[in-house]
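pinned: reference chain
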Amino acid sequence: MKRICIAAVTALLLCTGCGTAPKSIPAAVTTEPSTEAATFVSRPTEDPEKALTDAPTEAPTEAVPEETEPEETEPPEPTTEAPTAAYTAGLLHSVEEVALTDTDGQGTNYEFNYNGAIFEAVYTPDNWKIVNSYRIEAQADMVLICTALRDEHPIHGADMESYRTPEDMAYEWEQHNLAYAMLSNDSPWKENARDVDINPADQNKSLYELYQDRLGG
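pinned: its C-alpha cells
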C-alpha cells in the first residue's frame, strides 16, 4: 500500500515537470467583464426627447383675478337747474318767449303768449290763476310759464315761510289737467278743473289729495 502511494506521487511530479497538465484538470475560468454587459449599462433606456414629450404634464390652472378695491367716487354736486330731460318736450325754449305782460298796469291782470294763442293769468295775494290752463300739456312749457309768474309775483309755500318753485307750481298744474281729462263733460267739477289756481295750500298735493280737500275729507 505504501509503495502504491509513492508511485502515484512520483507520476504526478513527472507530469508537472514536463509542462503538461492532466486532461482531467479544467481550464481556468476567465473573469474579464463582458463587453455586452458594459454596453448595456452605458446605453440610455429611452430617447430623451421622447421622454420629455411623453412625460405627464400638470393640468393648466386658471389664473385667479386679483381682488381690487372699488374706486371711490365723489357724490355729484347739487344743482339748482331743472332736470329738463325728465319733462315732456315743449314748444318754449326760454322764459323770454312767454312774454308775460301786465295788461292793466295794476299788477293783477296778465297775458302771455303760447303757441300763437293768448292766455290770461290773474294774480291775487299768494295766488296765480291761469285761465284755460288745461290747453297747455307739455310739462317743460309749464315750468317756463311758472318761472315767469314766479319772477313777477312769488307765492309762499305751504309753511308760509318758503316760496313755491316753478317745478312744484307745474306739478299742481298737472294735477288739474289730469282731473280735467278724467272728469266727464257733465260733471260739475269739469268747469273748475279747466283753470288752475296755484296757492300755498295745494303745494305738492296729488290729484287724490286735492279731491279729498274739495270734498272736505
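why pinned: The first helix runs from residue 2 to 17. The helical segments are 2-17, 35-42, 48-54, 139-152, 166-182, 190-193, 207-215.
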